Amino acid sequence: MMKEKGVLGLCALFFSGAAFAQLVDMPGGPRVNQLNLSRGVTQVSSDIMDLHWLLLVICAVIFVGVFGVMLYSIVMHRKSKGAVPAKFHEHVGVEIAWTVIPFLIIIAMAVPATRAVVAMKDTTSADVTVMVTGYQWKWGYEYLDGPAQGVKFLANLSTPRDQIEGRAPKSDTYLMETDRHMVVPVDKKVRVVLTANDVIHSWMVPHFGVKQDAMPGVLRDTWFRATETGTFRGQCAELCGKDHAFMPIVVEVMEQADYEQWAAEQQQEMQAAADDPTKTYELDELMARGEKVYASTCIACHQANGQGMPPTFPALAGDEAFVLAPMKNQIEIILNGRPGTAMAPFRDLLNDVEIAAVATYTRHAWGNDGKGPDPIVQPADVTAQR
To answer: Cα(3)–Cα(108) distance, rounded to whole angstroms?
Structure first.
């Protein structure tokens, strides 16, 4: 029996080693076995790295000095060697030394630290300003000036459910990829204005040296100036609920010409995709749009099969209280949420067409088959209840 356990243990060790050997550095993210900070691609992140090493060296020197003297005194001046302790009441030189030396050490640490913090907080003279809003559990981006002014979108986790649930191999950007990227120009000062729609989140991108909380009802700001092009990754750094680990940040840094081309394409796409809330949509149109909205907004809580996770996230399949009931109550709860529960309001997150589409989708999916009194919800129905 013991021999069999040993063989199984060696096999487990072999396979774990083989899996570990397949790990690769994440593009724009952490490296395999990374223990230190990232040097990053901004002056602030570089300053943070230098400050980290400066403080570490100072602390190490103090540690070696203090414990070295202590150890030497214990060994060389022990009673068994006949050591006789000196007797004196005070020593002006010693008192001056243990006051002045720590003061100088503190100054040596405080000056570069203060300089770095002041630089972090200087958000003036920005070339691009982006409003970033934290939601459970996604990020919203809106460009407030520059070529991309008016462009806004939501960035959702794009890692397939098969990878999350262990049915498929994990990619090198597992849980760190989104369907839309924040795009900025290289060598330009980007001001990020942060807030939140529900609970406290935190926008963190280590390669930029940026970590700033996003709080409901409060505007905070930070900035960065990337000196290299590429894709850089971060994630929410404030515990914000069930899917806190599922709201990554992806920032793509481009050359100025590429950024302007991207901005022009986004403007054109927004105009082409502008929803008309006065239009009467066919069922197929609402179902196709509703499936996409559900996948990006609702699936984390109510699940792909509509069974939810009761009692916190109730099932939508066969739900007679809202989904298979008159549309008024369902529209109301989507717009305004339900206080005291995990259901957040979506009136500022989804437009009338998206709300009508997702409501219609839930009324026909998972065997609901439009059995309720209002099988189709039109945008005009949502507009009437706003």
So the answer is: 60
Task: Fill in the amino acid letter for 92.
Answer: V
Cis status, amide bond into 262, omega within 30 of 0: no
Residue listed under structure tokens 């989140």: 201
Residue 383, classified by CB atoms within 10 Å of its CB into exposed (0-12), middle (13-18) or buried (19+), is middle
Sign of the torsion angle spanned by Cα atoms 347, 348, 352, 355:
negative
What mean pLDDT is reported for the chain? 88
For residue 239, the tally of other CB atoms under 10 A from its CB is: 11
The DSSP secondary structure of 225-255, one letter per residue, reads --SS-EEEEEEE-S--STTGGG-EEEEEEE-
Scan for tokens 């021999």, then name that residue.
3
**Rounded Cα distance, 53 and 201, in Å:** 29
Predicted TM-score (pTM) of this structure: 0.72
Cα separation, 293 vs 377, in Å, equals 15
Residue 291: how many other CB atoms lie within 10 Å: 16
**Which one-letter amino acid corresponds to residue 56?**
L
Kindly report, residue by residue over 304-358, the tens digit of the pLDDT.
Answer: 899 988 888 899 998 888 998 999 999 999 999 888 888 888 888 888 999 999 9
CA distances from 87 to 77, 165, 167, 271 (A): 14, 71, 75, 87
What contacts 341, CB < 8 A, 6 or more positions away?
Answer: 312
Which of 61-70, 88-97, 111-120, 212-221 has the lowest average pLDDT?
88-97
CA atoms within 13 A on the CB side of 14: 6
The crossing angle, in degrees rounded to 10, of helices 327-336 and 352-364 is 130
| 380-383 CB contacts, 8 Å cutoff, 24+ apart | 380/277, 380/278, 380/280, 380/352, 381/327, 381/331, 381/356, 382/277, 382/331, 382/335, 382/352, 382/355, 382/356, 383/277, 383/352
Between CA 257 and CA 187 the distance in angstroms is 12
Beta bridge partners of 248: 235
Greatest CA separation for the chain: 101
**Separation of alpha carbons 90 and 98, rounded Å:** 13
